[in-house]
Amino acid sequence: MANFNGFSAASTLTSFTVAGAAVGLMAAVGLPVSASAASPSESAAQYRELGLQYRQAEQFPEAIAALQKAVELDSDHLPGQVSLGWTQHLANQDRAAAMTLQTTLQQDPFHVPALNALGIVYLVNEDLLGAVLTHSWAAWLAPDNEIAYYNLSLAWQRLEHYDWAIDAAQQAAQLEPDNPHPLVALSIIQWEQGNQPLAQQTYRQAMDLDLRYAEANFLDFLNQAGFNAEQIQTAKQVLQSL
C-alpha cells in the first residue's frame, strides 16, 4: 500500500502499556477514584464514557488519554479501540489513528466500523490505494454500508476511474437518500466526465435536500466529509454554473 507521512498502511501496533496507575490517571482525567475498585471491564466502560464526553467537548488530549486507558483495561473491546482511533483522527493524529485501527483489524479483520474509520484516515491522507482496498473490503462485508461506497466514490474520482466512481456514488445515494454528500460527489464526477447538464441536475438534487449547498462558502466544509481541495473547487464550479 501507499505511504503517508512516512507511514505504511501495512505497519502495525502490537502492544499497549499495561495498566499500573489507574487511580492516578482517573484523578488526572476527572474520573472518580472510587471507580478504581471496579472490575477492569467496568473501569474501561467508565473511561470510554468519559472519553466520549471529552471528545464531544472537543477536548481531544483528555479524550485520548481516557480512551487509551479504556483500551489498556479492556483490549478485547473493539468498539473502544475504534473510538480511540477515530478520536485520534479528529485530533489530527492520523498516524496514531491508523496504528490503532490496524491493531483492531488484527484482532478482527471483519470489523466493519474499524474498516470504515481506517479507510477515511487513508482517504484524507491521500493514501488512495489504502482507501480503496479498505473500503472495498468493508463494502463486500456489508453491502448496505453507505460510508464505504461514498468514500470509494471520492477515491475513485481522484484516481480518474470515473465509471467506478459513479457506481459507488450512486450506491451511496441509494443507501442514504437523505444525505446530500453522495449527490455532490456524483455531480463532480459527472462534471469531470464532461456531462455538465447531468452534473447540474444531480447537484440540484443535493440542494433540494439541503439549501446550504446553494452557498459557495458552505462548500468549504466538505473537507470534513472527505473531499479534498480540488474536489471542493469542482463542486463550486458546478454550483456557479447553475
Describe the structure.
The structure is a single chain. This protein is mainly alpha-helical and 242 residues long. It has a domain at 146-242: Serine Threonine Protein Phosphatase 5, Tetratricopeptide repeat (Alpha Horseshoe). 66% of the residues lie in helices and 2% in strands. The chain has twelve helices and two strands. It has helices at residues 22-29, 40-56, 60-73, 78-90, 94-107, 112-124, 128-141, 146-158, 162-175, 180-192, 196-209, 229-241; strands at 3-4, 7-8. The chain has a two-stranded antiparallel sheet with strand order 1-2. A hairpin with a 2-residue loop joins strand 1 (3-4) and strand 2. Helix 4 (78-90) packs parallel to helix 6 (112-124) and helix 6 (112-124) runs parallel beside helix 8 (146-158). It is elongated and about 60 Å long. The two termini are 40 Å apart.
